[in-house]
Design a protein that fits this description.
The protein is an alpha+beta fold. The chain has helices at about 30-40, 55-65, 100-120; strands at about 5-10, 25-30, 45-50, 75-80, 85-95, 120-135. Helix 1 (about 30-40) packs across helix 3.
Length: about 150
């Protein structure tokens, strides 16, 4: 799967007889779909974060570098075609939540958000649970508060 590599094109009808909203084409970049999917996944209760293990650690370091971009797409990979999209997510769930239920809710929320916002048909949302956040674990993606400023 690629990230930010291709662009989707939604072709409308053309000509004087066609409705105004269908004249021309709309393109949706992979990065746009990845951001929508990442935000939609994070909205689901029981999802602690996206990305697992090294991806989260690398993302946390990268996120501290000015101009390196946010972590919205960390743990998200998409493949976008002309009319369809596929999404792969790596998530971290909260301890005590039902992984099956959280995954189902994430899948549903991502499909609804991407289809509603882009008009693309989401053909699949694959979810890999890479970690479980325990109640007493510190979040390694947040900077240590005791650091010198």
């Amino acid at each position: 799967m690629t990230e930010n590599a291709s662009v989707s094109t939604l072709q409308g009808r053309t000509g004087a007889g066609a409705p105004a909203e269908t004249r021309g084409k709309t393109t949706v970049a992979d990065g746009v779909v990845a951001k929508i999917a990442g935000m939609a996944a994070r909205e689901v209760p029981g999802v602690h974060n996206l990305g697992g293990g090294m991806a989260r650690a690398f993302g946390a370091v990268r996120g501290r570098v000015p101009g390196s971009g946010g972590g919205v797409t960390r743990g998200v990979k998409v493949e976008v075609g002309e009319r369809q999209a596929a999404v792969d997510l790596d998530i971290v769930v909260e301890y005590g939540t039902s992984i099956v239920e959280v995954a189902g809710d994430v899948r549903s929320n991502v499909i609804n958000a991407v289809e509603r916002m882009t008009g693309l048909e989401v053909v699949e949302v694959n979810i890999a649970v890479g970690d479980v956040r325990l109640p007493d674990e510190e979040d390694e993606s947040e900077p240590d508060e005791s650091r010198v400023r």
